[in-house]
Amino acid sequence: MTVIATQPQSIEPVFHLEDEHAHADGASTMLGFWIYLMSDCLIFAILFATFGVLGGNYAAGPAPKDLFDLDLVAINTAMLLFSSITYGFAMLAVERGKVGSTQIWLAVTGVFGLCFLGIELFEFAHMIGEGATPQRSAFLSSFFTLVGTHGLHVTFGLVWLVTLMAQVAVHGLIPANRRRLMCLSMFWHFLDVVWIGVFTFVYLMGMLR
Amino acid sequence: MSANAGMHHGGHEAPEGHATLRGYVTGFALSVILTAIPFWLVMDNVLGNKQAAAVVIMVFAAAQVVVHMIYFLHMNSRAEQGWTMLALIFTIVMVVIALSGSLWVMYHLNANMMPVHDMRSMP
């Protein structure tokens, strides 16, 4: 309370009139989207931790060695890696302002993404057909949750990709669309980063168990 | 890139980093190598030692994550005045705590709960 009393009254009050300079539309979008990706990263971290804890509890059911086909996983990994670099080519086309080449590379990315999803769904269907359903054991519950969440992200990434292709077709490479394409670029590459964790910790380490 | 330097002056637009064809191709080539080696190690059981193989493929995964961060996500300490890097470091700290903490605690929980079915032999 004494602090208030000792404030000198004679000094002129200082007003900070200098406003913060204007921010362009969407100037903080990239940082905001990055923070969203980091929070997504925490979701995956928890799912990885769950899988790490439960991944060995087979409940006398099938183990990774009985279920996983590493050839299929290798093909899937290649699909996602190819889609990453083709999205990179799309971003390079965006920087050069080439609408046609952007659309082609986005379409190629989408095809690779669809191949990834198709192979993953084939794998899931095969596993479920063999009786390895999410209900079978804690290992399978955590497996389907982790890999399924990643697949769901890829699915929504594809929906987003198609939306942006429509946006670019209608409006061209306007600044707003460039920004959206940048966001999807980060999202797409981020999913590839998560997949590195999936194929290493789930599939490769599973085969080593 | 000189092409995109014009539209990103003033540090307000999103920093596109250094997206170049060479960067993407380099990142892709490194990723292919860093993916192929762990798959080869596990599929052909090259090391013959599961523990060693697990450690080696984890090192390769960490290296590939760094490659993706640099060449695909264009991470650097200058983007957004360093805030993206700060968010990344914070997330890494959180992930390490969550992962190592969960595994550590649950492993010890398992280890300590193991003899629970054998109560008759207890004094």
Automatic annotation (TrEMBL), chain B:
Cellular component annotations (GO), alphabetically ordered: cytochrome o ubiquinol oxidase complex; plasma membrane
Transmembrane segments: 21-41, 53-73, 85-107
Chief localization: membrane
Keywords assigned by UniProt, alphabetized: Cell membrane, Electron transport, Membrane, Oxidoreductase, Transmembrane, Transmembrane helix, Transport
Single GO molecular function: cytochrome bo3 ubiquinol oxidase activity
Membrane topology note: Multi-pass membrane protein
Pfam families in alphabetical order: COX4_pro
Domain of life: Bacteria
Subcellular localization: Cell membrane
One biological process term in Gene Ontology: electron transport coupled proton transport
Subunit structure of this chain's protein: Heterooctamer of two A chains, two B chains, two C chains and two D chains.
Stored PANTHER family: CYTOCHROME BO(3) UBIQUINOL OXIDASE SUBUNIT 4 (PTHR36835)
Biological function: Cytochrome bo(3) ubiquinol terminal oxidase is the component of the aerobic respiratory chain of E.coli that predominates when cells are grown at high aeration. Has proton pump activity across the membrane in addition to electron transfer, pumping 2 protons/electron.
Family: Belongs to the cytochrome c oxidase bacterial subunit 4 family.
UniProt protein name: Cytochrome bo(3) ubiquinol oxidase subunit 4
